[in-house]
Design a protein that fits this description.
The chain is of the alpha+beta class and about 300 residues long. Helices cover about 30% and strands about 30% of the residues. The chain is built from seven helices and eleven strands. Helix 4 crosses helix 5 (about 190-200). The longest helix is centred in the N-terminal third of the chain and has 19 residues, at about 80-100.
């Protein structure tokens, strides 16, 4: 089956299950990326196998393995699960040639449309687990007056003097999420967070807001506005995309309404800017964030299946 046909059938199949998924074009090999293709009796699969490496002190290093091997998929034919199984076997052969066996700083990652159930069993058989989700929330055009207030909670834009509070909240969030395999507790994480937050807080209009509960700063939310989200906007069929980078609430303030107030404020800010959708990442196994975000109007769009190390 020709690559153009695979891409077209794959796009049509995904469009039928989720209208917010973007279209597909045939994969093309590039630097650090090769195209793998397999065929079964009646189905076919194409995959773009790539490798991304980051420095240990890079801003995004705490949220990923330092070497990430990624496989983007396109499946076609009446039995896509069988084609996926064959493609994963082919990719494993490729990984054994390029990845160091047992290196825990490597990960094999397969992004899959969350509503595309075909091949989930095959993913598990190859040692992958659904660890991280990109969730989507369509803009709410029905609440122009803004969110209702929460008793005892005041939300204000963060300023440079909030750096210590922001770092403390960020570290608490990071430590909690590390339990679910989506972030990494490495030496130097505090310095990386502090540098990144200081740069944001020194912007003319920092994209962070602080929530005070009866005068105590116990929560924060961080957003990226349309125009800053080019790195992820191609993952959704929308023009103006906002991104909710993080929302952290101190343990002492959980179940107080602080998190809901921060989320409502962030959504109002982005809705006022004319965003079509807001995206965010969350750990699939997190028993707090998963139900929280879906109660705020989000739903899964992409699920990132991961195996770590990449080669066992």
């Amino acid at each position: 089956m020709h690559s153009d046909v695979i891409a077209t059938e794959h796009a049509a199949r995904l469009a039928a299950v989720d209208p917010l998924l973007p279209g597909s074009s045939p994969f093309e090999a590039a630097e650090n990326a090769v195209v793998l293709e397999v065929a079964t009796d009646d189905s076919a699969a194409s995959g773009l196998a790539s490798r991304v490496q980051v420095d240990r002190d890079a801003p995004n290093a705490p949220w990923r393995a330092l070497t990430e091997h990624r496989l983007d998929l396109q499946l076609a034919g009446p039995h896509p699960a069988g084609a996926l199984d064959a493609l994963l076997t082919r990719w494993d052969e490729h990984l054994r040639a390029v990845a160091e066996r047992g290196d825990t700083e490597t990960a094999a990652v397969v992004p899959r449309a969350s509503r595309d159930a075909a091949g989930a069993r095959e993913m598990l058989h190859h040692g992958f687990a659904p660890l991280r989700v990109v969730a989507v929330r369509p803009a709410d055009r029905m609440i122009p007056e803004g969110p209702r207030g929460t008793p005892g909670v005041k939300i204000r834009r963060a300023e440079p003097g909030d750096l210590e509070t922001a770092v403390s909240l960020g570290l608490e969030l990071h430590s909690y999420d590390a339990q679910y395999g989506t972030v990494n507790l490495r030496k130097g994480v505090e310095d990386i967070l502090a540098k990144d937050l200081a740069e944001q807080l020194n912007r003319p209009e920092p994209p962070l807001w602080i929530a005070e509960l009866y005068g105590r700063p116990l929560g924060m939310v961080n957003v990226q506005h349309p125009g800053e989200t080019g790195w992820i906007s191609d993952r959704v069929a929308a023009t103006r995309v906002g991104y909710l980078s993080s929302l952290a609430v101190a343990e002492a303030a959980r179940s107080s309404g602080v998190g809901t107030a921060l989320a409502a404020h962030a959504h109002h800010v982005l809705d006022e800017e004319g965003t079509d959708v807001v995206l965010l990442h969350h750990a699939a196994a997190n028993p707090l964030s998963t139900p929280f975000w879906y109660a705020q109007g989000y739903r899964p769009l992409w699920t990132y299946w991961q195996r770590r190390p990449a080669v066992r």
